[in-house]
Amino acid sequence: MLNTLRSIVQDVAGAGSFREQLDLLVHNVRVALGTEVCSIYLMNREQDQLLFAANEGLNKDMIGQISLAVTEGLVGLVAERAEPINLNNATLHPRFHLVPEIGEESFHAFLGVPVIDHRRVLGVLVVQQRERRKFDESEEAFLVTLSAQLATVIGHAEATGDMAQLFAQDSAPALERADAVFRGVGGTPGISMGTAVLVHPPASLEAVTDKVIEDVSTELMVLDRAIESVRDDIRRISEQFAASLPPEELALFDVYLHMLDDNALAGDIKDRVRKGSWAQGALKQVIHEHVRRFEAMEDSYLRERGADVKDLGLRVLAYLQDLRAKKVHFPDDTILVGDEVTPGMLAEVPAEKLRGIVSVRGSVNSHLAILAQSLDIPAIMGAVDFPVANIDNQPLIVDGFYGEVICNPSPQTVEHYQTLMAGERELAEELEELKHFKGVTLDGWRVGLWVNIGLTGVGRSLDRGAEGIGLFRTEIPFMTKERFPSEEEQRTIYREHMEAFEPKPVTMRTLDVGGDKALSYFPIAEENPFLGWRGIRVTLDHPEIFLVQARAMLRANEGLQGDLRIMLPMITSITEVEEAMGLVERAYQEVLEEGANVKQPQIGVMIEVPAAVYQARRLAGMVDFLAVGSNDLTQYMLAVDRNNPRVAELYSDTHPAVLGALREVAKAALAENTQFGICGELAGNPIGAVLLMAMGYQVLSMNETNLPKVKWLIRNIKRSDARRMLARVLRMDTAEEVQTFMHRQLHKAGLGRVLPSHHH
Ligand code: PEP
Ligand code: MG
Known about the structure:
Blueprint: H1 2-14, H2 18-33, E1 37-44, E2 49-56, E3 67-69, H3 73-81, E4 85-87, E5 109-117, E6 120-129, H4 137-160, H5 162-167, E7 180-183, E8 185-188, E9 191-198, H6 216-241, H7 247-259, H8 265-274, H9 279-295, H10 300-325, E10 334-338, H11 343-348, E11 354-359, H12 367-374, E12 379-381, E13 395-399, E14 404-407, H13 411-432, E15 448-453, H14 458-463, E16 469-473, H15 475-479, H16 487-501, E17 506-509, H17 536-541, H18 543-556, E18 564-568, H19 574-593, E19 602-607, H20 610-614, H21 616-622, E20 625-628, H22 630-638, H23 656-671, E21 675-678, H24 686-695, E22 699-702, H25 707-715, H26 719-729, H27 735-748
Helix pairs in contact: 1-2, 1-4, 6-7, 6-8, 6-10, 8-9, 9-10, 16-18, 18-19, 21-23, 24-25, 24-26
């Protein structure tokens, strides 16, 4: 069963058009279950009707011609109830509704299952048989499982408009699809227009797209070079193991080499290149074909060989992509597009050319989104239906306010967005003059408005009026290198920022890798990286990395007036803080002994996990400051992966539980008289900033992009009013309630202009 299921899903997903997918689906299901009839009905939401969309066994002429109201018939009942209906004689059911043109009167057995994606019924899958019999449990389970897997295929067709095309009568001319809109979540508020540049992750066959080439001979040469390099590698590895492996194991390497011969994989790949495919695409197709063939084998040993083929494919791909990497050309209006755009890829694009980002994976709170924000680059994350493979070089509009990306925009759309962009620019210019003012409320309450630093140059954040650095994400300079940066390299980078901010305080976070932040030269492969070896856990296990970094921070601050604050990420226990403080002290003593004129740094703990909230008072007693990392705190409190678009709607940093935790941290820090602030995205969100200020947070550290708006807001509100709002908010049950209430309050107070704008 499992194999049949898998091969149907693969077949359907791999078919060309949506029409072909539907036809294949009904055909395969009919064969698999041995039924006389299989149909699929698709929900036309606008008309609340189910279209007879694909079929085998009934009157095919009616496909696309007949629709049933949802209140009509058994198919409608399946959709209405959103659960399977299994009957041995459908004609006796009160909801049976005969549509004579379809010709189903002689079929008795009926099994219909709904196709549901994201809680919505998209269609109904039906099998029917003449015989009066109930489909058995395993048949029902099969259809339910299949339909759950196919829901994404159909959901995709809905998002891309292919489904709507089916609803438009077959006779109607195909619609010109200008303005294809795809949804994700807005990573950075803002709008931009530009040209798509597709980036590939390091060697992943799935991400390789199909492309047609003209220069076959160059492509063949490139392919030959890549294959030859892989052969060299294999020979080298084989020699290395020659002494230590038994001959039968060593023979495996020969098998590998043979697989790369012209009469095996390489030949097949070349054939495809000769037919006009680029080498990477040809490689992908051939490898997938072979892997599928191996995986279908009965013999478990042979099945495993599929993995070897895949491994070989990846090795060749790695060389192919290296050969090509140098050729990537970034136009002046680059919109970086990819299955999973990473901070590393971002760093490759010259800053002045980057206009926007669209990533199929990731969410508002992934580090990529945060980096994009600090660069003020409109970004769309989690655009799951975005057809990355066919988008290279196309014009795009990225609307980060609404989390929409528009391909192929019509001239009217372009004009509309140009007007909006001009409006945004105006507001930004107006707020620019605030840079010389401090964060003070109308009734005189002082809040430090600091900045989070990652990739950006120093100048911009000062231009926007930052009063200090509240979070220096040191992992960013680590990510853009090919090895760990040396102490001196680190010192240089850190000092540049400290000098620019002098005499303002600078908060340096110790290396926070793991989770979604990987170093290419220090790979960490884990099932659950966000619950794994991450942040302080890594650096305490590698004191050599920690000590070098602490020394670099201390020495970078030598002779400067500004306070150096060292901050520890992902703290979950008192012991970790004690150990880390011990290491900082050691680094400090060493640097002193070497004759440097350094001051004792302040030490702070990040509150990023629920455990730290419950020990906040104790932690506050140990260190100089607390800083809440609300991005991770939200992720861990709500058990919602900050990168996963499927649960992005559940991720809410104004969830009452999160606000409650923030309030607890504030109370703990106040009780210990320890300075406390926040450096998660919530601080840069106007609603968040008001609530945090009301709670007493002394430092709000945020992306420089949000800083002017937040400053304007703080300077135009009274803390007493903010506290009244907070008191109400703390009694609310849901994040939605909080959002609605705060929106209304801020609008009423005439402060709505800094809230996310409403375009549509
Ligand atoms: C946070 O978790 O809120 C935080 C500031 O750290 P990062 O986003 O870098 O994980
Ligand atoms: Mg964090």
